[in-house]
């Protein structure tokens, strides 16, 4: 918590402005003198990295929108025009397209850090819920943006996902028809997706402001999960946290640049470089990589409605997590059993990603089913995705609540400073 303001205006103008619109005081209290736990590690730098990613996406998106032409007959060619004819258009488009993947890499690391260190526990429930809301809006924004190039995978991905909404009884078909703007994926659909894709990043920015506000009200969590008790537990945000964030952002931008300049298509699908053809279905329709675990959950269940409910329920579990976790200890650093289950959870999420990327009937290990005299599909990716889906929900709905009641945690330090001082004494 920020506490009493220490800002003091230095000249007549700053005093005049501070008395009428205390913007400088707000910046000082939030990003200069704000007390941060002294034991924060580099996993905490991804909040700043995500803010950087959002800014990059908004700026490049505005420039791209100046040249993009909405319409089934013009969208694909306008993207090619941006890449070939607009000055530095190839760079702006590569930054924007690669930036979506880098954004999701950063947000998944940020969320996993929150899960591991218990950043969703009281009094940070609203902070966590706002973060989950940002994630949900990000997914919608990314999906609509993926449709805009109007390539083969864009068109058929839009067709599959929007059709999926129609399975919900009562409102499903109405929502699908509204998104389509008619009775199929066509020009009105593209127009709606372009409008929403342009609008939603600014909605994300608004929720990010609320997220930061909530963070400054309840204070930052830290690796020990112990709240600051004195000034010895904290350091000013500047220069300590800002220097660490700046270094992490620099490394992140280097990786970002490697993909932009040398591997711009590494995270996309080759079929999206082919103009959309409603008469030719791709051999295997897949979403972008950051949706693959949820796509695997969808395909794991034979019934379309139940599969859709499971997919959206997988995201809903994140929103319910503050009330599912019953442990009084925040950080898994002091919860050995929870740490093991969490590592398994991460592995399962990666496996679900591979399941979503492969055809459901392909064999995970070719020839294994025949060798074991099983049905040809017994070794398929869909069965592996069912196992992964089972553990995913088991982790949130059973393991997490039960561990809080049965696990015996390790001793938690009294203050943030005590383990820091102890480590310093060992090194000394």
User: What's the arrangement of strands in the largest beta sheet?
Assistant: 1-2
Rg of Cα set: 24 Å
Number of domains: 2
pLDDT < 50 runs, ≥5 residues? none
Number of helices: 16
Major sheet summary line: 2 strands, antiparallel
| Proportion of residues in helical segments | 55-70%
Write down how many β-strands occur, each being a DSSP E stretch of 2 or more residues: 2
What is the average per-residue confidence, as pLDDT, rounded to a whole number? 92
CATH topology of the largest domain: Cytochrome Bc1 Complex, Chain C
CATH superfamily of the largest domain: Cytochrome Bc1 Complex, Chain C
Shape: globular
CATH uppermost class of the largest domain:
Mainly Alpha
Q: Beta fraction of the residues?
A: under 5%
User: What class do helices, strands and sheet pairing give?
Assistant: mainly alpha
N-to-C span: 32 Å
CATH architecture of the largest domain: Up-down Bundle
Topology readout:
Layout: H1 12-20, H2 23-31, E1 35-37, H3 46-65, H4 75-84, H5 89-117, H6 125-147, H7 152-165, H8 172-180, H9 187-218, E2 234-236, H10 237-262, H11 292-300, H12 304-324, H13 336-357, H14 368-371, H15 381-406, H16 417-427
Antiparallel strand pairs: 1-2
Transmembrane segments: 42-70, 91-111, 126-148, 160-181, 193-215, 246-263, 305-324, 336-354, 381-399
Protein name: Cytochrome b
Function: Component of the ubiquinol-cytochrome c reductase complex (complex III or cytochrome b-c1 complex), which is a respiratory chain that generates an electrochemical potential coupled to ATP synthesis.
């Amino acid at each position: 918590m920020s506490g009493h303001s220490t800002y003091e205006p230095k000249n007549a103008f700053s005093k005049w402005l501070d008395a009428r619109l205390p913007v400088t005081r707000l910046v000082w209290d939030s990003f200069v003198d704000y007390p941060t736990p002294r034991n924060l590690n580099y996993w905490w730098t991804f909040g700043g990295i995500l803010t950087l990613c959002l800014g990059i996406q908004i700026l490049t998106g505005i420039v791209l929108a100046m040249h993009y032409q909405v319409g089934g007959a013009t969208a694909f060619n306008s993207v090619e025009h941006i890449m070939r004819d607009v000055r530095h258009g190839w760079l702006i488009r590569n930054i924007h397209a690669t930036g979506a993947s880098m954004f999701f890499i950063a947000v998944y690391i940020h969320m996993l850090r929150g899960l591991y260190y218990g950043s969703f526990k009281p009094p940070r429930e609203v902070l966590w819920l706002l973060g989950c809301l940002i994630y949900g809006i990000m997914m919608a924004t990314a999906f609509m943006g993926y449709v805009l190039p109007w390539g083969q995978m864009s068109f058929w991905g839009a067709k599959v996902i929007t059709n999926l909404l129609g399975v919900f009884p009562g409102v499903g078909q109405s929502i699908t028809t509204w998104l389509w703007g008619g009775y199929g994926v066509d020009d009105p659909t593209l127009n709606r997706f372009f409008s929403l894709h342009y609008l939603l990043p600014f909605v994300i920015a608004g929720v990010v402001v609320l997220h930061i506000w909530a963070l400054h009200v309840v204070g930052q969590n830290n690796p020990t999960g112990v709240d600051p008790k004195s000034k010895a537990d904290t350091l000013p945000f500047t220069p300590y946290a800002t220097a660490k964030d700046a270094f992490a952002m620099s490394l992140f931008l280097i990786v970002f640049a490697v993909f932009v300049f040398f591997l711009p298509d590494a995270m996309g699908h080759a079929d999206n470089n082919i103009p959309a053809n409603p008469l030719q279905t791709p051999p295997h329709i897949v979403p972008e990589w950051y949706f693959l675990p949820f796509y695997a959950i969808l395909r794991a269940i034979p019934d379309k409605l139940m599969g859709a409910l499971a997919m959206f329920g997988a995201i809903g579990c994140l929103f319910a997590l503050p009330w599912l976790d019953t442990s009084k200890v925040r950080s898994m650093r002091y919860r050995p059993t929870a740490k093991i289950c969490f590592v398994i959870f991460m592995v399962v999420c990666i496996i679900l990603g591979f399941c979503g990327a492969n055809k459901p009937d392909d064999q995970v290990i070719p020839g294994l089913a025949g060798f074991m005299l099983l049905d040809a599909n017994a070794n398929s990716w869909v069965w592996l995705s069912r196992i992964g889906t089972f553990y995913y929900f088991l982790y949130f709905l059973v393991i997490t609540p039960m561990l809080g009641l049965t696990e015996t945690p390790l001793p938690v330090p009294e203050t943030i400073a005590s383990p820091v001082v102890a480590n310093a004494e060992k090194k000394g």
